[in-house]
Amino acid sequence: MGWILGFIVLSLALFAVVARRVMDAPVAVGAGAPERPTSPEPPSDPASDHLLRKTEARIGAMVPRGSGPPPTPTPTPTPTPVVPPAAAPPEPEVAGPVRRTEVLTPEEEAEALAPGPDGFPDAWLEQVGDRLLVVTPRGPVNPRSRTAASRAGLWSFEVQVGPDHAEAAQRGDFSPGAPVRLVRDPDDADDPSVIAVQADGADELAGRVPRGYAKRLAKVLDSGADLVAVSTRGATAHQKGASPQVLAVERSLWDHLNRRASIDGNAEGAPGPSSP
């Protein structure tokens, strides 16, 4: 506040000097008007000059060099909030293949698939890795098992997809749990035990049951057994994937394998019987 007061005093002093000079300056009234006589400049007053210089010195002492009114602060621009891009949805996990070390050995299968008091083995269907497997309290049954599994009524095989059937196999739905049709063709001159495989609702052949396996399974089909066949490994329709793996069992055994789903109330119903 001190420097402001000094500034005001100095301004008043300068205003007084300027006003005095204006009053003493000649003023032209008009054309031909006589000039106003100018009064002689009054002699300087040493006392007044000393007072003026003293006042200026005080003001200079009160106002530091380079001082002045505080600068107006420049407003800081508000930064635009950066919105991070939305995170991409996580990709669905793909179940890996089942390793041989994760399934039972032939000796373990023979014990695990032994029939119980109800005539059925203590087993059920369960998704393991990339496929649907028959699982026992001792572990999963090897989907390539033949002897012990077939004795227990479990017919599991990989579909033989030839060059002529590749497109039909890709168009069909062979995802785990999808129903499959087994079609007998006893009039085949080359192999009377041949069994064709079709996706549910399709008329095209997607492949065949392996010949060595078909000889035994054909007898079951020809006997009129009510078989249920489902894919246990494969891809959905119009998707590339591994060759389909199929499980065929009699309907009574199918119901037994799905008893846990029936207890939980999640059973979707068994597929229809395979075509003789």
Could you outline the blueprint of secondary structure elements for this entry?
Elements (H helix, E strand, L loop, with lengths): L1 H23 L21 H17 L43 H7 L11 E5 L2 E6 L2 E2 L6 H5 L3 E4 L7 H6 L8 E5 L10 E5 L7 E2 L2 H12 L4 E7 L11 E6 H7 L1 H6 L12
Antiparallel strand pairs: 1-2, 2-3, 4-9, 5-6, 6-7, 8-9
Helix pairs in contact: 1-2
Task: Describe, in plain words, how this protein is organized in 3D.
This protein is an alpha+beta fold and 276 residues long. The protein has a domain at 103-264: Alpha-Beta Plaits. The protein is built from 8 helices and 9 strands. It has helices at 2-24, 46-62, 106-112, 147-151, 166-171, 211-222, 251-257, 259-264; strands at 124-128, 131-136, 139-140, 155-158, 180-184, 195-199, 207-208, 227-233, 245-250. A 3-stranded antiparallel sheet has the order 1-2-3, with no helix packed on it. A hairpin with a 2-residue loop joins strand 2 (131-136) and strand 3. Helix 1 (2-24) runs antiparallel to helix 2. The protein is rod-shaped and about 145 Å long. It starts with a helix and ends in a 12-residue tail after the last helix. Residues 27-31, 91-95 and 263-270 have low confidence and may be disordered.
